[in-house]
Amino acid sequence: MKELEEAIKKRSLVKRGDKVLLGVSGGPDSMALLLSFAALKKKMGLVLYVAHVDHNLRRDSGKDAAFVESWAKKLGIPFTCLKLSWRAGKKKGSLEEACRNARMDFFIRTALKLKAGKVALGHNLDDQAETVLMRLLRGAGLSGLSGIAFKRTIRGVTFIRPFLAVSRKRIEAFLKRRNISPRIDSTNLEDVFMRNRIRHRLIPLLKKEYNRNISGVLSSLAENASSDYDYLERAAAQAAKGGKLAFDTKKLMRMHPSILRMNMRQCIARLKGDTRRITFRHIMELEDLVTSRPPGSIVDLPQGVSARKNASSIRFYKR
């Protein structure tokens, strides 16, 4: 797809000679991604690998793996696969989150092993719109409204999503012209997960009753929010001036609330790697700790992170 090359150039996603691990499920988005990168392989001197995760949630999930492997072989691209096992019982959190975490961990481990600096995933414009709505309904702030990033580095590996500005309809048309029938995950058709309910019920309602281009509008919102959030992150880092996990309380109280909240989030991310499960209520508790609570007060946050108010400072630590 021409959109792949355009995104790569506009957003500096890939450079000549890069090693790129392609996350391919066998669905429409990832198959378009695979074919598009394969077409660019020689032109840009890319070294490509294909990784597939068999979530083992359907009886026929093994057919997805075989389908992807056959295409990788046809295109001359090395293939690797992980089959998940759920015999140990349900993990903490939702099944959707458990699958996502296992998938991301596999991609990172595989990329590091292959010395591939990039992992390319096939999320599209409609996925972006669904993500923004899902986070909005859960009470997200500016960070959540930023949606899915075109480029983000996690544990030393850069994840890229070149199709975030491409609609699902455009991707399906691309495959149809080439007579390619991708694998369809039947669980995507069920309204069990929140994302599926948004995709099958809420988005169609918004398109019909309010704005036919709602997906494009939400995608633009995400891009604008992402740009603003990036600026705030830089401003907060500058305001902290080397502070990592401890800050002077008086200095914090003089900060603009947006910069203060960003500093709080950055401290949490340093300790636990991300800010997942950190809600606005948690941030409000931290603000109250800074402005109103006496020395010795502690705020406990998810996943073992705490903040303590000392005589003249706020310190974050793992409990």
Keywords:
Uridine Diphospho-n-acetylenolpyruvylglucosamine Reductase, domain 3; 319 residues; 4-stranded antiparallel β-sheet; 2 domains; alpha/beta; Rossmann fold
Distance from N terminus to C terminus (CA atoms, Å) equals 49 Å
Largest sheet: 6 strands, mixed
What is the count of structural domains?
Answer: 2
Question: What does the radius of gyration come to?
Answer: 22 Å
Elements, N to C (H/E) = HEHEHEHEHHEEHHHEHHHEEE
The fraction of residues in strands falls at 5-15%
Give the class from helix and strand content and strand pairing. alpha/beta
What's the rounded overall pLDDT mean?
91
CATH superfamily of the largest domain: HUPs
CATH class descriptor name of the largest domain: Alpha Beta
Number of strands: 10
The coarse overall form would be: globular
Query: What is the fold named in CATH at topology level of the largest domain?
Result: Rossmann fold
- With strands numbered from the N-terminus, the spatial order across the biggest sheet is 3-2-1-4-6-5
* Separate helix tally: 12
Low-confidence stretches: none
What percent of the residues sit in helical stretches (DSSP H or I)? 40-55%
CATH architecture of the largest domain: 3-Layer(aba) Sandwich
Question: Could you walk me through the main structural features you see in this protein, from its secondary elements to its overall organization?
Answer:
The protein has a 6-stranded mixed sheet, with helices on both faces. A 4-stranded antiparallel sheet has the order 7-10-9-8. It contains 12 helices and 10 strands. The chain has 2 domains: 2-214, HUPs (Rossmann fold), CATH 3.40.50.620; 241-318, Uridine Diphospho-n-acetylenolpyruvylglucosamine Reductase, domain 3 (2-Layer Sandwich). α5 packs across α9 (214-240) and α9 (214-240) crosses α11. The chain is globular and about 70 Å long. 52% of the residues lie in helices and 15% in strands. The protein has 319 residues and is an alpha/beta fold. The chain has helices spanning 2-11, 28-44, 61-75, 95-114, 125-137, 142-145, 168-177, 194-209, 214-240, 249-254, 257-272, 280-291, and strands at residues 19-23, 47-54, 79-83, 118-120, 151-154, 157-160, 246-248, 298-301, 305-309, 313-318.
